[in-house]
Amino acid sequence: PELSDTVTPADLLCVQVAGLLHDIGHGPYSHLFDARFMVHFAEEGKKPFCHEWASIRMIDHMFERNSLSEAFAAHGLEDGHLHVIQQLILGAEDEAPPFFPWTDP
User: Fold this and answer.
1) Out of 31, 40, 51, 75, which one is annotated catalytic?
2) How far apart are CA 54 and CA 90, in angstroms?
3) Is 51 a catalytic residue?
4) 81 burial class (0-12, 13-18, 19+ CB within 10 angstroms)?
Protein backbone atom coordinates (compact mmCIF):
# COMPACT_ATOMS: atom_id res chain seq x y z
CA PRO A 1 0.00 0.00 0.00
CA GLU A 2 0.97 3.59 -0.53
CA LEU A 3 2.09 5.55 2.50
CA SER A 4 -0.72 8.01 1.85
CA ASP A 5 -3.19 5.13 2.26
CA THR A 6 -2.03 4.32 5.79
CA VAL A 7 -0.82 7.63 7.26
CA THR A 8 -3.58 10.01 8.23
CA PRO A 9 -3.40 13.80 8.59
CA ALA A 10 -3.71 13.23 12.37
CA ASP A 11 -0.66 10.92 12.24
CA LEU A 12 1.36 13.59 10.45
CA LEU A 13 0.30 16.25 12.94
CA CYS A 14 1.29 14.00 15.86
CA VAL A 15 4.78 13.60 14.37
CA GLN A 16 5.07 17.37 13.88
CA VAL A 17 3.94 18.15 17.44
CA ALA A 18 6.29 15.50 18.87
CA GLY A 19 9.15 17.04 16.89
CA LEU A 20 8.37 20.48 18.26
CA LEU A 21 7.95 19.36 21.88
CA HIS A 22 10.51 16.57 22.28
CA ASP A 23 13.15 18.72 23.96
CA ILE A 24 11.06 20.94 26.23
CA GLY A 25 12.18 18.89 29.23
CA HIS A 26 15.80 19.99 28.87
CA GLY A 27 17.29 22.18 31.51
CA PRO A 28 19.40 25.22 30.66
CA TYR A 29 22.28 24.49 28.28
CA SER A 30 20.48 21.39 27.01
CA HIS A 31 22.49 18.14 27.09
CA LEU A 32 25.29 19.75 29.09
CA PHE A 33 22.83 20.35 31.93
CA ASP A 34 21.62 16.76 31.82
CA ALA A 35 25.07 15.16 31.55
CA ARG A 36 27.07 17.36 33.90
CA PHE A 37 24.61 18.69 36.46
CA MET A 38 21.57 16.45 36.87
CA VAL A 39 23.60 13.23 37.16
CA HIS A 40 24.62 14.38 40.64
CA PHE A 41 20.99 14.19 41.78
CA ALA A 42 20.24 10.65 40.65
CA GLU A 43 19.32 8.20 43.36
CA GLU A 44 21.58 5.17 43.56
CA GLY A 45 20.30 2.32 41.43
CA LYS A 46 17.87 4.55 39.56
CA LYS A 47 18.10 6.06 36.12
CA PRO A 48 19.49 9.62 36.20
CA PHE A 49 17.50 12.61 35.00
CA CYS A 50 16.07 12.07 31.54
CA HIS A 51 14.84 15.09 29.61
CA GLU A 52 12.37 12.96 27.65
CA TRP A 53 10.67 11.97 30.91
CA ALA A 54 10.55 15.61 31.94
CA SER A 55 9.07 16.45 28.52
CA ILE A 56 6.29 13.90 29.04
CA ARG A 57 5.40 15.39 32.42
CA MET A 58 5.51 18.94 31.10
CA ILE A 59 3.24 18.04 28.18
CA ASP A 60 0.74 16.40 30.56
CA HIS A 61 0.79 19.50 32.74
CA MET A 62 0.31 21.88 29.79
CA PHE A 63 -2.51 19.77 28.36
CA GLU A 64 -4.41 19.62 31.66
CA ARG A 65 -3.66 23.16 32.86
CA ASN A 66 -4.67 24.77 29.57
CA SER A 67 -7.60 22.50 28.67
CA LEU A 68 -6.11 21.70 25.28
CA SER A 69 -8.75 19.13 24.29
CA GLU A 70 -10.62 21.80 22.32
CA ALA A 71 -7.46 22.91 20.53
CA PHE A 72 -6.69 19.29 19.67
CA ALA A 73 -10.21 18.77 18.33
CA ALA A 74 -9.97 21.92 16.21
CA HIS A 75 -7.02 20.31 14.43
CA GLY A 76 -8.54 16.84 14.07
CA LEU A 77 -6.89 15.28 17.11
CA GLU A 78 -8.50 13.47 20.02
CA ASP A 79 -7.21 13.27 23.59
CA GLY A 80 -5.72 9.85 22.83
CA HIS A 81 -3.38 11.46 20.33
CA LEU A 82 -1.56 13.06 23.27
CA HIS A 83 -0.35 9.60 24.25
CA VAL A 84 0.80 8.95 20.67
CA ILE A 85 2.80 12.20 20.72
CA GLN A 86 4.40 11.22 24.03
CA GLN A 87 5.32 7.77 22.72
CA LEU A 88 6.92 9.36 19.69
CA ILE A 89 8.99 11.53 22.03
CA LEU A 90 10.10 8.54 24.10
CA GLY A 91 10.90 6.49 21.02
CA ALA A 92 10.66 2.99 22.48
CA GLU A 93 8.89 1.16 25.27
CA ASP A 94 12.15 0.46 27.13
CA GLU A 95 12.76 4.23 27.27
CA ALA A 96 9.41 4.91 28.93
CA PRO A 97 9.35 5.92 32.59
CA PRO A 98 7.65 3.62 35.12
CA PHE A 99 4.70 6.02 35.43
CA PHE A 100 3.98 5.92 31.68
CA PRO A 101 1.74 3.13 30.32
CA TRP A 102 3.02 2.08 26.90
CA THR A 103 0.39 1.07 24.36
CA ASP A 104 0.71 -0.59 20.98
CA PRO A 105 -0.33 1.52 17.99
Assistant:
1) 51
2) 11
3) yes
4) middle
Question: What gap in Å lies between CA 10 and CA 37, rounded to an integer?
Answer: 38
Here the contacts of 4-10 (C-beta below 8 Å, separation 24 or greater) are 9/76, 10/76, 10/77, 10/81
CA pair distance 29, 62, nearest whole angstrom: 22
pLDDT of 87 higher than 80: yes
Q: Give the span between the Cα atoms of 95 and 71, in whole angstroms.
A: 28
Query: Could you read off the pLDDT of 18-48 as tens digits, one per residue?
Result: 999 998 887 777 777 777 777 666 666 666 6
